[in-house]
Amino acid sequence: MVDVDPDRAEQRAEQPLLRMRGIVKQFPGARALDGVDLEVRPGEVHCLLGQNGAGKSTLIKILAGAHQPTAGEVLLDEEPVTISDPVAALKLGIATIYQELDVVDGLTVAENIYLGHELATGGVTRRSDAARNTRQILDRLGHKEISPHREVGSMPAAGKQIVSLARALSRDARVVIMDEPSAVLDSEEVGNLHRIVRELTADGVAVVYISHRLEEIRQLGDRITVLKDGRTVATGLPVADTPTRELIKLMTGRTVEYAFPERSGVPEAAAPVLEVEGLGLGDVFQDISLTVRAGEIVGLAGLVGSGRSEILETIYGARRSTSGSVRVGGKRVRSGVDGAVAAGIGLAPEERKSQGLLLDEPVYRNITLSTFARMARGGLLDERAERAAAREQVEALDLRPASVDRDARTLSGGNQQKALLARWLVHGCRVLLLDEPTRGVDVGARSEIYGLIRRLADNGTAVLVVSSEIPEVLGMADRVLVISDGRAVHEGPAEEIDEHAVLDLVMEGSVA
Q1: pLDDT (tens digit, 9 = 90+) per residue, 467-486?
Q2: What is the pLDDT of residue 3?
Q3: DSSP string for 35-53
Q4: Which residue has the higher pLDDT, 37 or 350?
Q5: Gap between the Cα atoms of 490 and 369, Å rounded
Q6: Which string of DSSP letters, residue by residue, matches 441-471?
Q7: Closest CA to 477 of 299, 261, 239, 282
Q8: Boundaries of CATH 3.40.50.300 in the chain?
């Protein structure tokens, strides 16, 4: 817990800046919120915790004006307010940074930051003023390397997150809502984010902060509200005085241990399934060589921007390599995604909502997406066969809710990840590439995902996994490759290296 100065403590003793009372949200066939209460004081970081599906996203979308409550009221400075749409929220001084990055790829950084509140005189946009102001905001965020004129579509996910944060800062908001803002940031960028949050709260801004990383809550938060099944089960808990075990029990209704499944052990004589030799992608990464055997989990550890995700995308054929080769079962994989899928390679991407799932299609269609050819009868999809195959996986993976006709958009983060894994199980892939498999997944669902990945390996799948959380890589994997600046600087058994050694390697970039 960070030190609190007397002035800031006095601010927090004031009346709430934002209050939500008895918030109910009813969707057709489901009640997402059932009487939620939330009270946020000026100058505090109020952390909102709960498992996926607890109602956190619905609650913040009501504050952002994206949803209207069925019942209950929202008060700002103790005065009832109606947040009819996102524009109304911004006018009230409520800015939201979503977990699903809401930037426009075809626009520049400056255009994204001032989208909807353009600087203009006489109907003419003042582009130079927007660029200058954007430069000042980016400097404040500690990102002088980002040009206001850069097209956002060319930026990695971490860069886009910085643009979303800069947009919120450009609004002079009184309440800033942050939904998993550190999920795609490396340790240095997380430090910058925390610094900005502290600056905001020092100016009296209230921050509502959602994170599944409980250690981050400890470092940054002041008070906590916990949601479970659409209800408030605890609110106003002081971060410093609430044990982690109690928070987990409030979120899940049970005690959850931070434990990874035991490693089963891969026979030394096991033949490699995936063989990558001398793989390169321009100046992004070079000379990557690795093997993954049947039943083995190999982890790629490194900072955001080190080339980890691009390595997976190149193996999958989504990026065209500039050197090297990929083999599965000893046979060279044809270039392109079609060649990779035909060879038995599957990918669960980092951005599952934008790159992995058809959000407005039913769960069964998302699960059978890679096997359409097998599901066709006379040139037409056999929906009965699709549903039957999907139901088998839904039951095996304990995907909830169990309805295969429900739109993928309505699933929690953990269950969306299960649907992606189910797709490749139906396909029968030999190699599974996982990019940030637990991003945005709560502590209860994480243990399920870990267990599922280990069971896949035990059944003979070769797994290659990327995670920004070094303890997760070391806990899941049998072997680890450490990537720094696009090159492999270490390879060895996961149990023979610790988090500090990995950080030393990625920061120094020297071959061990």
Answers
A1: 877 888 999 999 999 998 89
A2: 42
A3: EEEEEE-TT-EEEEE--TT
A4: 37
A5: 37
A6: --HHHHHHHHHHHHHHHHTT-EEEEE-S-HH
A7: 299
A8: 6-93+173-252, 271-344+430-512
CATH number, domain 6-93+173-252: 3.40.50.300
Please tell me the predicted confidence (pLDDT) of residue 120: 67
Our CA dihedral for 368, 371, 375, 377, rounded to 10 degrees, sits at: 140
Q: What is the pLDDT of residues 357-380, one digit of tens each?
A: 878 888 888 888 766 555 555 556
Q: For residue 112, which of 88, 142, 137, 144 has the smallest C-alpha distance? A: 137
**Is the torsion defined by CA of 388, 389, 395, 399 positive or negative?**
negative
DSSP 219-236: HH-SEEEEEETTEEEEEE
Pairing label, strands 479-484, 297-301: parallel
Angle at 304 between CA 299 and CA 308, to 5 degrees: 40
Contacts 24+ apart (CB under 8 A), 71-75: 71/22, 71/23, 71/24, 72/20, 72/21, 72/22, 72/23, 72/24, 72/35, 72/36, 73/20, 73/21, 73/22, 73/23, 74/18, 74/19, 74/20, 74/23, 75/16, 75/18, 75/19, 75/20, 75/21
Higher pLDDT, 9 or 406: 406
Structure-block tokens of residue 393:
């996986």
Alpha helices in 122-270 (DSSP H): 127-140, 157-169, 187-202, 214-220, 244-252
Burial class (CB in 10 A: 0-12, 13-18, 19+), 412: buried
Enclosing H/E stretch for 112: helix 109-113
Q: Does the pLDDT value for residue 71 go beyond 50?
A: yes
pLDDT at residue 511 above 50? no
**What element of type H or E holds 473?**
helix 470-476
Question: pLDDT at residue 150 above 50?
Answer: yes
Comparing C-alpha atoms, which of 19, 63, 59 is closest to residue 41? Answer: 19
Q: Is 70 helix (H, G, I), strand (E, B) or coil?
A: coil
- Tell me which CATH code domain 271-344+430-512 carries: 3.40.50.300
Indicate if the pLDDT at residue 47 is higher than 70: yes
Task: Map tokens 């209704």 to a residue.
Answer: 253
